[in-house]
Design goal:
The chain has 361 residues and is an alpha/beta fold. Helices cover 60% and strands 15% of the residues. It contains 10 helices and 9 strands. A 5-stranded mixed beta sheet has the order 4-6-7-9-8, with helices on one face. A two-stranded parallel ribbon has the order 1-2. It has a two-stranded antiparallel sheet with strand order 3-5. α4 (112-155) packs antiparallel against α6. The longest helix has 61 residues, at 50-110. The two termini are 72 Å apart.
Length: 361
């Protein structure tokens, strides 16, 4: 029957023009079949419309087939586009991470000389103290030999010889100031330990700054990160400028500690390089409208008005060859934006520059 045939087509998901021709099916059955997918209904005693209906439904079937093909092609193109967009996004993220790492390494290269100086200072007195400790060890070794001989003399039960060796030991101790030696020994070891710890911290700071780290959803302390950045650059600013800090009450923010440290190091390094001598860098923090504001201001030579709009462009730099790569502020901008923040800059030539980093709390 027509209803059975229609059910078979629907079950097998076959799209064919389906025209019901009957002299017995009632109007209710015909309406149900039309609702279930039949395309037309004709009575046997009125077939004048049959050719027209067949022609119309063949065209409709052809159109439906073309639409399905178009939709399948569109879906294929959509899937391919999404795949390409996903791959391109991964490539861009990888490129950005490589640029960030290059920026870290470039900055480390710029401060290598200062770091070497910082390491050489404690290393120098560690070497000097070890040399003195070796001398003290030789003296104590000689004293031990004298005492070993004295022990043998005591066994001989010769009072005169015993007295003579005892006086010889006293004279040796006085000549080399053994009491001072033991006290100084402790001081020298303490200084060596302090020097080694200082070298270890410098190396740790360098490794931490160069370390690749992507975590951005943890709570971080902006003040601690600022202090770490200042400490990291302390040798570079030692003879050129001083830092004045005015920290307000601010909450923790979510982000990446290492990446935010790179932001502050880049900005402070720019400030240092803009100062010739006797300069000042002012760093302040505040909290307003659920946002943390970090301001870093210097009284250096400033930025020319025509360059202000370009400073965040990759590879743009006004510094001499070998001093800047043009990546620092570009990466700084990208990092701040990845924290859903913003960075503003104001500058006037020969008066100084002010950077304001804004991070949502």
């Amino acid at each position: 029957s027509a209803p059975d045939a229609l059910r078979i087509l629907k079950k097998k998901n076959i799209d064919l023009p389906f025209i019901v021709i009957s002299g017995t099916i009632g109007e209710d059955v015909a309406v149900d079949m039309m609702k279930n997918g039949a395309h037309d209904y004709l009575l046997k005693n009125n077939l004048i419309r049959l050719c027209v209906a067949i022609d119309r439904e063949m065209k409709e079937a052809h159109n439906r087939s073309q639409r399905r093909l178009a939709q399948e092609e569109l879906k294929k193109l959509k899937d391919e586009l999404e795949e390409k967009v996903e791959q391109r996004t991964k490539d861009l993220m990888l490129s950005q991470e490589k640029l960030m790492q290059a920026g870290r390494l470039a900055l480390i290269g710029q401060i290598t000389a200062g770091v070497a100086h910082e390491i050489n200072n404690p290393l120098g007195f560690v070497k000097s103290n070890i040399s003195r400790l070796e001398e003290y060890l030789d003296i104590l070794s000689d004293l031990k030999k004298e005492e070993d001989v004295f022990k043998e003399v005591i066994k001989e039960d010769d009072k005169e010889k015993t007295r003579m060796f005892l006086n010889q030991i006293f004279k040796f101790e006085k000549q080399h100031d053994i009491d001072f030696l033991f006290e100084d020994y402790k001081v020298l070891l303490k200084e060596v330990n302090h020097g080694i710890n200082r070298i270890q911290k410098i190396i740790s700071d360098l490794m931490g700054f160069a370390h690749k780290e992507n975590e951005i959803g943890v709570e971080i302390n902006i003040h601690k990160i600022l202090d770490a950045a200042i400490e990291f650059l302390s040798n570079d600013m030692k003879y050129k400028c001083q830092v004045n800090k005015e920290y307000g009450r601010i909450p923790m923010v979510k982000g990446s500690a290492h990446k935010m440290e790179q932001v502050f190091v880049n900005i402070i390094m720019n400030a240092i390089q803009s100062i010739e001598k006797n300069g000042k860098i002012f760093i302040s923090t505040s909290f307003k409208d659920n946002k943390v504001y970090i301001t870093i201001e210097d009284n250096g030579k400033g930025i020319a008005k025509e360059n202000l709009e370009k400073i965040f462009e990759p590879f743009f730099t006004t510094k001499k060859a070998g001093i800047g790569t043009g990546l620092g502020l570009s990466l700084t901008y990208d990092i701040v934006r990845s924290h859903n923040g913003n960075i503003l800059v104001e500058s006037e030539e020969e008066k100084g520059t002010k950077f304001t980093v804004i991070i949502p709390a």
